[in-house]
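Page 37, continued from 36.
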Protein backbone atom coordinates (compact mmCIF):
# COMPACT_ATOMS: atom_id res chain seq x y z
CA UNK A 1 0.00 0.00 0.00
CA UNK A 2 2.80 2.45 0.84
CA UNK A 3 4.35 2.01 -2.61
CA UNK A 4 1.11 2.96 -4.33
CA UNK A 5 0.78 6.14 -2.29
CA UNK A 6 4.42 7.07 -2.82
CA UNK A 7 3.92 7.16 -6.60
CA UNK A 8 0.73 9.24 -6.69
CA UNK A 9 1.36 12.62 -8.28
CA UNK A 10 4.65 11.67 -9.91
CA UNK A 11 4.96 12.09 -13.66
CA UNK A 12 1.81 14.15 -14.08
CA UNK A 13 1.69 15.52 -17.63
CA UNK A 14 2.99 19.04 -18.15
CA UNK A 15 2.89 20.93 -21.45
CA UNK A 16 4.95 23.89 -22.65
CA UNK A 17 5.13 25.45 -26.09
CA UNK A 18 7.73 27.25 -28.18
CA UNK A 19 8.53 28.19 -31.76
CA UNK A 20 11.47 26.81 -33.72
CA UNK A 21 11.96 27.70 -37.37
CA UNK A 22 8.64 27.00 -39.12
CA UNK A 23 7.37 24.63 -36.41
CA UNK A 24 5.39 25.11 -33.24
CA UNK A 25 6.94 22.71 -30.71
CA UNK A 26 4.92 21.22 -27.89
CA UNK A 27 7.13 19.89 -25.11
CA UNK A 28 5.44 17.26 -22.97
CA UNK A 29 6.77 15.96 -19.67
CA UNK A 30 5.51 13.02 -17.65
CA UNK A 31 2.87 10.43 -18.34
CA UNK A 32 -0.01 10.78 -20.79
CA UNK A 33 -2.19 8.18 -19.17
CA UNK A 34 -5.46 9.74 -18.09
CA UNK A 35 -8.48 10.81 -20.09
CA UNK A 36 -7.93 14.32 -18.75
CA UNK A 37 -4.40 14.35 -20.21
CA UNK A 38 -5.63 13.35 -23.67
CA UNK A 39 -8.44 15.91 -23.56
CA UNK A 40 -5.99 18.65 -22.53
CA UNK A 41 -3.53 17.67 -25.25
CA UNK A 42 -6.27 17.62 -27.90
CA UNK A 43 -7.45 21.07 -26.81
CA UNK A 44 -3.90 22.41 -27.21
CA UNK A 45 -3.77 21.00 -30.74
CA UNK A 46 -7.22 22.38 -31.59
CA UNK A 47 -6.26 25.84 -30.35
CA UNK A 48 -3.19 25.79 -32.59
CA UNK A 49 -5.27 24.75 -35.59
CA UNK A 50 -7.72 27.58 -34.93
CA UNK A 51 -4.76 30.01 -34.88
CA UNK A 52 -3.72 28.72 -38.31
CA UNK A 53 -0.64 26.86 -37.14
CA UNK A 54 -0.03 24.02 -39.58
CA UNK A 55 3.41 22.66 -38.61
CA UNK A 56 3.55 21.03 -35.20
CA UNK A 57 6.37 19.10 -33.55
CA UNK A 58 5.58 17.02 -30.50
CA UNK A 59 8.66 16.70 -28.29
CA UNK A 60 8.33 13.38 -26.46
CA UNK A 61 11.80 13.39 -24.89
CA UNK A 62 10.43 13.58 -21.35
CA UNK A 63 7.32 11.44 -21.83
CA UNK A 64 7.60 8.32 -19.71
CA UNK A 65 4.33 6.65 -20.71
CA UNK A 66 1.48 7.10 -23.15
CA UNK A 67 -1.80 5.25 -23.43
CA UNK A 68 -4.29 4.60 -26.22
CA UNK A 69 -5.94 7.98 -25.61
CA UNK A 70 -2.65 9.72 -26.32
CA UNK A 71 -2.20 7.66 -29.48
CA UNK A 72 -5.69 8.67 -30.60
CA UNK A 73 -4.84 12.35 -30.09
CA UNK A 74 -1.64 11.98 -32.13
CA UNK A 75 -3.56 10.28 -34.96
CA UNK A 76 -6.33 12.90 -34.76
CA UNK A 77 -3.75 15.69 -34.96
CA UNK A 78 -1.93 14.07 -37.87
CA UNK A 79 -5.20 13.71 -39.80
CA UNK A 80 -6.36 17.25 -38.98
CA UNK A 81 -3.05 18.73 -40.12
CA UNK A 82 -2.95 16.57 -43.26
CA UNK A 83 -6.37 17.94 -44.30
CA UNK A 84 -4.90 21.45 -44.02
CA UNK A 85 -1.66 20.47 -45.81
CA UNK A 86 0.20 20.70 -42.52
CA UNK A 87 2.81 18.54 -40.85
CA UNK A 88 3.11 16.68 -37.57
CA UNK A 89 6.47 15.32 -36.46
CA UNK A 90 7.54 13.60 -33.26
CA UNK A 91 10.82 14.31 -31.53
CA UNK A 92 13.00 12.16 -29.27
CA UNK A 93 10.70 9.46 -27.92
CA UNK A 94 12.40 7.16 -25.44
CA UNK A 95 12.72 3.46 -26.29
CA UNK A 96 9.44 2.53 -24.61
CA UNK A 97 7.43 5.29 -26.31
CA UNK A 98 9.08 4.58 -29.68
CA UNK A 99 8.17 0.89 -29.33
CA UNK A 100 4.53 1.80 -28.67
CA UNK A 101 4.50 4.14 -31.69
CA UNK A 102 5.99 1.42 -33.89
CA UNK A 103 3.64 -1.32 -32.66
CA UNK A 104 0.64 0.73 -33.79
CA UNK A 105 2.38 1.79 -37.02
CA UNK A 106 2.60 5.52 -36.37
CA UNK A 107 6.22 5.51 -37.50
CA UNK A 108 4.93 4.71 -41.01
CA UNK A 109 2.85 7.87 -41.28
CA UNK A 110 4.49 10.36 -38.88
CA UNK A 111 8.15 11.36 -39.15
CA UNK A 112 9.98 10.53 -35.90
CA UNK A 113 13.30 12.19 -35.07
CA UNK A 114 15.61 10.46 -32.59
CA UNK A 115 16.86 13.78 -31.22
CA UNK A 116 15.92 17.44 -31.37
CA UNK A 117 19.23 18.05 -33.11
CA UNK A 118 18.18 15.67 -35.91
CA UNK A 119 14.91 17.62 -36.19
CA UNK A 120 16.76 20.96 -36.37
CA UNK A 121 19.23 19.65 -38.96
CA UNK A 122 16.54 18.32 -41.33
CA UNK A 123 16.19 20.64 -44.32
CA UNK A 124 12.42 20.14 -44.33
CA UNK A 125 12.00 21.30 -40.73
CA UNK A 126 14.91 23.71 -40.37
Amino acid sequence: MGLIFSTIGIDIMNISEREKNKFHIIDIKGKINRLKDSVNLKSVFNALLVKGIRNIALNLKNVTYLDSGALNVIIYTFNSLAKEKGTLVLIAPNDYVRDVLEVVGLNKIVKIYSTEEDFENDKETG
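Confidence is low (pLDDT under 50) at residues 1-10. Flag for discussion at group meeting. The beta strands are 14-20, 23-32, 55-66, 87-91, 111-113.
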